[in-house]
Each structure stands twice: as C-alpha cells, then as structure tokens.
Design a protein that fits this description.
This protein is mainly alpha-helical and 53 residues long. The protein has two helices and no strands.
C-alpha cells in the first residue's frame, strides 16, 4: 500500500508539491484572517462599551 501511494505521488507534474507548500500557507492565512476578525470584534466591543459610559 505504501509503495503504491509513493508511486502515485511521484512525478505528478508538480501538483503534489504545490499542495505540500500551498496547503499550510492557505491554512495559516485562514487562521490569520480569523484572528484579525476576532481582534476587530473585540476592539469594537470595547469601544462600544466605553462610548456608552
């Protein structure tokens, strides 16, 4: 099974290498976008709370 998987991934025109590099980059970018949204939401909550006082 392992040999057939290695043969499948060997020399596939570069798409597997693209996934090995692009996958983690996309995952990290997604996490950064999520973190930015959470920070902006928290900042908006703090600013709303200080405005209401």
């Amino acid at each position: 099974m392992t040999a057939s998987l290695a043969a499948l991934l060997a020399h596939q025109g570069g798409w597997d290498e693209v996934l090995l590099i692009g996958g983690p980059i996309v995952a990290i970018a997604g996490l950064l976008i999520l973190a930015k949204r959470r920070v902006e939401a928290a900042a908006a909550d703090v600013s709303d709370a200080s405005d209401s006082e």
